[in-house]
Amino acid sequence: MGTNVQDRIIAIIAEQAVVERADVTPETTLESLGIDSLGLVETIFAIEEAFDISVPFNANEGERNDIDLTSVGAVVRAVEDLIAAKGGASAAFA
Question: Domain residues of the chain, as ranges?
Fold first, then answer.
Protein backbone atom coordinates (compact mmCIF):
# COMPACT_ATOMS: atom_id res chain seq x y z
CA MET A 1 0.00 0.00 0.00
CA GLY A 2 2.76 2.44 1.00
CA THR A 3 4.43 3.34 -2.27
CA ASN A 4 1.23 4.01 -4.20
CA VAL A 5 -0.16 6.10 -1.33
CA GLN A 6 3.12 7.97 -1.03
CA ASP A 7 3.28 8.65 -4.78
CA ARG A 8 -0.28 9.95 -4.85
CA ILE A 9 0.26 12.17 -1.83
CA ILE A 10 3.49 13.55 -3.28
CA ALA A 11 1.62 14.36 -6.50
CA ILE A 12 -1.16 16.11 -4.57
CA ILE A 13 1.25 18.10 -2.42
CA ALA A 14 3.40 19.07 -5.42
CA GLU A 15 0.31 20.28 -7.26
CA GLN A 16 -0.95 22.26 -4.26
CA ALA A 17 2.49 23.80 -3.65
CA VAL A 18 3.01 24.42 -7.38
CA VAL A 19 6.38 22.69 -7.38
CA GLU A 20 7.90 19.83 -9.34
CA ARG A 21 7.23 16.33 -7.98
CA ALA A 22 10.98 15.77 -7.78
CA ASP A 23 11.16 18.59 -5.22
CA VAL A 24 8.85 16.71 -2.84
CA THR A 25 10.31 13.88 -0.75
CA PRO A 26 9.11 12.22 2.46
CA GLU A 27 11.56 14.40 4.40
CA THR A 28 10.24 17.64 2.88
CA THR A 29 8.30 19.84 5.28
CA LEU A 30 5.10 21.44 4.13
CA GLU A 31 6.40 24.75 5.43
CA SER A 32 9.50 24.53 3.21
CA LEU A 33 7.18 24.10 0.23
CA GLY A 34 5.44 27.35 1.12
CA ILE A 35 2.15 25.68 2.02
CA ASP A 36 0.36 28.13 4.28
CA SER A 37 -2.76 27.46 6.36
CA LEU A 38 -5.11 27.91 3.41
CA GLY A 39 -2.90 25.72 1.25
CA LEU A 40 -2.89 23.09 3.99
CA VAL A 41 -6.69 23.05 4.09
CA GLU A 42 -6.84 22.71 0.29
CA THR A 43 -4.24 19.93 0.42
CA ILE A 44 -6.22 18.05 3.04
CA PHE A 45 -9.41 18.37 0.98
CA ALA A 46 -7.58 17.00 -2.06
CA ILE A 47 -6.20 14.07 -0.04
CA GLU A 48 -9.61 13.32 1.46
CA GLU A 49 -11.15 13.26 -1.99
CA ALA A 50 -8.38 11.15 -3.53
CA PHE A 51 -8.50 8.49 -0.82
CA ASP A 52 -12.16 8.76 0.26
CA ILE A 53 -11.16 9.37 3.88
CA SER A 54 -11.79 12.01 6.49
CA VAL A 55 -8.68 13.62 7.93
CA PRO A 56 -9.22 14.69 11.56
CA PHE A 57 -7.96 18.23 11.09
CA ASN A 58 -9.42 21.51 12.25
CA ALA A 59 -7.75 24.59 10.79
CA ASN A 60 -8.76 26.56 13.88
CA GLU A 61 -6.93 24.14 16.19
CA GLY A 62 -3.46 24.78 14.77
CA GLU A 63 -0.83 22.82 16.70
CA ARG A 64 -3.47 21.01 18.78
CA ASN A 65 -4.60 18.71 15.97
CA ASP A 66 -4.34 14.96 16.52
CA ILE A 67 -2.54 14.43 13.22
CA ASP A 68 1.05 15.26 12.31
CA LEU A 69 1.14 17.32 9.12
CA THR A 70 4.64 18.70 9.42
CA SER A 71 6.31 16.66 6.69
CA VAL A 72 5.31 14.75 3.59
CA GLY A 73 6.32 11.49 5.29
CA ALA A 74 4.13 12.28 8.30
CA VAL A 75 1.19 12.97 6.00
CA VAL A 76 1.78 9.66 4.19
CA ARG A 77 1.86 7.74 7.49
CA ALA A 78 -1.30 9.47 8.71
CA VAL A 79 -3.16 8.72 5.48
CA GLU A 80 -2.01 5.09 5.53
CA ASP A 81 -3.32 4.80 9.10
CA LEU A 82 -6.65 6.36 8.12
CA ILE A 83 -6.98 4.03 5.13
CA ALA A 84 -6.21 1.01 7.33
CA ALA A 85 -8.73 2.15 9.91
CA LYS A 86 -11.35 2.57 7.20
CA GLY A 87 -10.97 -0.94 5.94
CA GLY A 88 -7.77 -1.60 4.11
CA ALA A 89 -5.92 -0.99 0.93
CA SER A 90 -9.00 -1.14 -1.26
CA ALA A 91 -9.95 2.30 0.04
CA ALA A 92 -6.72 3.69 -1.43
CA PHE A 93 -8.01 3.02 -4.92
CA ALA A 94 -11.45 4.60 -4.49
Answer: 2-93
Give the tens place of pLDDT for each residue, 27-73.
Answer: 999 999 999 989 999 999 999 999 999 988 765 565 555 788 889 99
Architecture in CATH of 2-93: Orthogonal Bundle (1.10)
How far apart are the two ends of the chain, measured CA to CA in Å? 13
pTM of the model: 0.82
DSSP per-residue letters across 21-81: GGG--TT-BTTTTT--HHHHHHHHHHHHHHHT------TTTGGG-SS--SBHHHHHHHHHH
Q: How far apart are CA 42 and CA 15, in angstroms?
A: 11
